[in-house]
Amino acid sequence: MSEARPLASLYDVIERRRDVRAEFTGEPLPDDQLLRILGAAHQAPSVGHSQPWDFILVRDPATRRRFQQHVATERDVFADSLTGERAETFGKIKIEGILESSLGVVVSYDPDRGGPAVLGRHAIADAGLYSTCLAIQNLWLAATAEGLGVGWVSFYREEFLQQLLDIPTTIRPIAWLCVGTVSGLQDTPDLERHRWRSRRPLAEAIHEGSYRAPLR
Amino acid sequence: MSEARPLASLYDVIERRRDVRAEFTGEPLPDDQLLRILGAAHQAPSVGHSQPWDFILVRDPATRRRFQQHVATERDVFADSLTGERAETFGKIKIEGILESSLGVVVSYDPDRGGPAVLGRHAIADAGLYSTCLAIQNLWLAATAEGLGVGWVSFYREEFLQQLLDIPTTIRPIAWLCVGTVSGLQDTPDLERHRWRSRRPLAEAIHEGSYRAPLR
């Protein structure tokens, strides 16, 4: 586990960033810190400068509990699809820190923002979705630089979150991020430590000139 | 225009990052620098640790020229959808630096990577797509920290890129990133400078407890 270094360099932050489940301490987040990480998200690039993201802060314990129960149900759905070693390995893995973290940040995507003619989106309908994810990564890295932890929960149905947080049906919830103070960050990602899946060598991901041509 | 500061802190990099079109100098990229920014991308979080991204390096000028011609056609398609002030404003905006930058990095997404049971994706089919975007933002920020420029081109049809780079039809190209050395980075995003669209105040993007409740 490593300690926080708020003004650390970019590469250092990228390396230390973890998807946090078990390390939240539950202490409240100072407002200035929260505004800095949301500000970092808001500075992300977006297709046609559409800035199609929104951030819904969920502090209310009862709301978080309802979400946590929904996630537990979806965890069971996934567990039921597994057998043998996969089922056993998954059984040990904690998938969320919804109640332990002090805050949920739901990031949503509004396809109508900046429309109807969004510059750079006529040929790729998902481009606005991509922009929203870039904002999420900015938030995640900023939180890491601040010494905070972030955990992305994705065991949920979008319709459930729309109803829970009164999100219009035209707007998609993209992520529930558990955000909070942490005791530290793991050196190795949870899914590697628990042998769910190992790291792919970088060289395998690089291709030269065409998809079928490996790195020279 | 601001100068490069390779070991700058995260917030500084997030603020300086720009979507570059006109500032590429065309000089070749040192291999160690390229590997560092790809390594940063490869350290992104991914659903179920699936690491579903790939990076196709496109240096060949003839291939880049073919892509540039396709993009010019799609630019015309978008321009034809505009009228009045929008058409006039768009006419002044440069949308790509495909030939001026020394390298194209195409980032693709493989939905079959780590399957069939990808942890965290059973309820949200797009979750792997989101992971790929997080990798793109890591790359973009790392390039900015290195003093390089990145420009995301999205005026293209996915099928065209699949054919151009021999990408299997099951794998989606998510971005063509122009990457290269730059004379500097603009202080203000191009689409703001050219009055295509202005910045949304951060406070408007923050909601408290539900989507319909503004920031308190």
TrEMBL record, chains A, B:
InterPro entries: BluB, Nitroreductase, Nitroreductase-like, Nitroreductase/BluB. Pfam families: Nitroreductase. Keywords: Flavoprotein, FMN, Oxidoreductase. It comes from the Bacteria. Residues 14-180 form the Nitroreductase domain. SUPFAM superfamilies: FMN-dependent nitroreductase-like (SSF55469). PANTHER family: IODOTYROSINE DEIODINASE 1, NADPH NITROREDUCTASE. This is Cob(II)yrinic acid a,c-diamide reductase.
